[in-house]
Amino acid sequence: MSATGPIRIGYSLSLSGPLGANGQTAYLAQRIWEEDVNKRGGLLGRPVQLVCVDDKSDASLVPAIYDKLLDIEKVDLVLGGYGNNSLTPAMPRVIERKRYFVGLMSLGANLRFDYGGYFAMIPTGPDPNTALTAGFFEVAARQKPKPQTVAILAADADFSRNPIVGAQANAEKNGLRIISETKYPLSTKDFAPLLREVGKTSPDILFLCSYLNDSIGLIRGISEVGLEPKVVGGAMIGPQSSAVQTALGPLLNGLVNYEYWLPVPKMIVPGVEDVIRRYQARAASEGADALGYYVAPMAYAQMQVVEQAVSATRSLDDGALIEYTRTASFSTAAGDVKFGKGGEWSAPRVLQVQFRDIRSKDIGEFRDARTRAVVSPDAVASGELIYPYAQAKKPR
């Protein structure tokens, strides 16, 4: 590729399949960045061109996509996609070629590779498995009367392994006893029998680890069965999505779950409101999440990290970009980012959020943070946990 042609950035994203909504959200935010950087004259005096390939939420397609991007397309830079499904299968290809690799969201993707050129935009910090749910268990353990027992109910899938390991460690750290651990196939449609079985143990905390569709089934099932542990939620991929929010509406009241960004006062950093405004104006016509809070700030920030590294080093050399990114601080739409051990954020910043006071299934219920209180970490909290779950389910 000529030094005057476009800088081509290649990567795989799940633009269709079960993870398509989150992939489309990331892609729209990344294209907004592409437009912004090109308006400013591009990078190194050259325009930037994103080369994004749909992996259809199928991990088996990912290695061939990166082989083509790297060896046939010969893109200038590569990125990591959304989720372990898209990112982990790319790692061996990237490592073999010693490429600079900024991933989007993938929990603990580098734990088994320990690759020095990998950097993650997921804000789980140097111990990602435990960081995802540390706040969930800490907040629960502070309540009075203190909960004592935990039941784990999780999808039997690759993405659930690391959160379960983290949940086990966090429960033990907070003096909580795990009394059952149940896994269900992703094909499960009726969750009521599973939940009735779990309910027989009367857990104080019901810890859930699920994908989008099963998140809907689980929350509906909890309501149908009338299950009322003291705390419900934890590691659900789904309640962050507006498709799940508008499917469930008031049934989400009381749920406690993780988030990475929300429009609460302490998370409004320069530029993020403008990104969100432009994103939301285009989301409906692009098939992306209506609000974009979960993925869009992180996806835009992912591109800002690459932009700032290229601008600072005045280079597309993978080695130079890796060295710079290891020690630099980056100013992004997701806040200030510095990387540490394993390419993870040097300090975790996972939010725990409680849904409350939702009265309808209208998307307007979720547009501001009124119906989602950040209950952890204390530094960005916007409310206290309503406890127990039975109380939090009732709109105030």
Summarize the topology.
Blueprint: E1 7-13, H1 20-39, E2 48-54, H2 62-72, E3 77-79, H3 83-87, H4 91-96, E4 101-103, E5 118-120, H5 128-141, E6 149-155, H6 158-173, E7 177-184, H7 192-199, E8 205-210, H8 212-225, E9 231-236, H9 242-248, E10 256-259, H10 272-286, H11 296-313, H12 318-327, E11 329-332, E12 335-338, E13 351-355, H13 364-367, E14 372-376, H14 389-392
Parallel strand pairs: 1-2, 1-3, 3-4, 4-5, 6-7, 6-8, 8-9, 9-10
Antiparallel strand pairs: 10-13, 11-12, 13-14
Please characterize this protein's 3D structure:
With 396 residues, the chain is α/β, with parallel strands linked by helices. It folds into two domains: 7-123 and 267-343, Rossmann fold (3-Layer(aba) Sandwich), CATH 3.40.50; 128-259 and 356-392, 3-Layer(aba) Sandwich (Rossmann fold). It is 38% helix and 18% strand. The protein has 14 helices and 14 strands. The strands form three sheets. A seven-stranded mixed beta sheet has the order 7-6-8-9-10-13-14, sandwiched between helices. Helix 6 links the parallel strand 6 (149-155) and strand 7 (177-184). Helix 1 runs parallel beside helix 11, helix 5 (128-141) crosses helix 6 (158-173) and helix 11 crosses helix 12. It is globular, with a radius of gyration of 21 Å.
